[in-house]
Amino acid sequence: MLRSRLLAERAAEKLLTDIASYDPQVVEGDFLVFRAAELGYDLRLRRVAVAFEVSMPRPAPRRQGGTQTRDTALVRSELLRTVGEIFADPQDIVASTAPGWIGVLHRLPAGCSTTSLVADCRRVTDLIAAQDGLVARAGLGEPAASVGGLHDSYQDACDALRLGARFAEAASVHLITDLRVHQVVTAVSQAARNRLVDLTATELRAQPDWPALRDTVTAWCESGFNLVRTAEALHIHRNTVVYRMNKIERITGRPLREYRTAMALHLACLADRLGGGTGR
C-alpha cells in the first residue's frame, strides 16, 4: 500500500510538473490529457491552479548522540496529507513540485466561484501554520479547462505568490486577479521601469517621507479614487490623506485627481517597490 501510494504521488508530481512547464512546441497537449486520463484525471474539467509555499523552520543543530527533531521527507509527507485532506475531490491533482512547494489543480464545480476556494486555501495555511511554526502562503490562478490554460493558471498562481509577498505581506492567500497590474509591471524590462520612475517620481522620491507618499498614491488608486476608502486603507485620518495628496500635487505640478496622472504615478510606485529607478 505504501509503495502504491508513493507511485501515485510520483505520477501526480510528474503530471503537474509537465503541465507547469508545458510548451506546445515540444509536447502535444493531447498527450498530457491521455496521460492524465490513465491516472484517473480529466484535464478537460474546469480547474483552478493553486500554489502553496511553505517556509520551513531552520533545522535544529544535531546534538551529540542525537538526531534532528524533524526529517525533511516527513515534513513533505505531512504537508501533502494536510493539503490532500482539504482538496479531497478525486479530480483534484495534489503534488509536491519542489522543496517547500505544493501545487494543486483544483476541480471547480459548475456554477461555483473561487470564494469557497479562497476559504479552503486559508484553512490549509492555518493548519500548516499550526505545525511547529511553519509559515504557509497560497497563490491562486484563474479557471481553465485545457492543458495550455492550466499551464497559464499555474504560472499565474506562482506569480501571485511572488508578488503577494512584496505587496501584501500580511495576507496568506493571494489572487492573481488582484495583482494583474503588478504582474504587467514586472513583465516590463528593468530599463523601462527605471525610466518610468525617473521621469515620473524623481522629485517625490527625494522627499524624506517618500514611503508614505508612495503608499498614499497606491491606496488612492486601489481604493477607486475615494478619499474615505483611502484613509481606511492607510489607517489614517482623511485630513492626513488630503495633506499628502496636496503635497504630491505641489511637487509634481499635476493634479492627482486626474486619471492619467494618478495611474502614471501608481505604476511608478509599483515599479519603485520592485526596485525601479536609478536615483538620477
Describe what this molecule looks like in 3D.
The protein is α+β, with helices and mostly antiparallel strands. 55% of the residues lie in helices and 11% in strands. Strand 2 and strand 3 form a beta hairpin. The chain is elongated and about 70 Å long. The chain starts with a helix and ends in a 7-residue tail after the last helix. The model is unreliable at 62-69 (pLDDT under 50).
> Could you give the order of the helices and strands?
HHEHEEHEHEHHHHHH
Please state the average pLDDT score.
89
Largest sheet: 5 strands, mixed
Helix content: 55-70%
Low-confidence runs of at least 5 consecutive residues: 62-69
Number of distinct helices? 11
Shape: elongated
Task: Compute the CA-based radius of gyration.
Answer: 23 Å
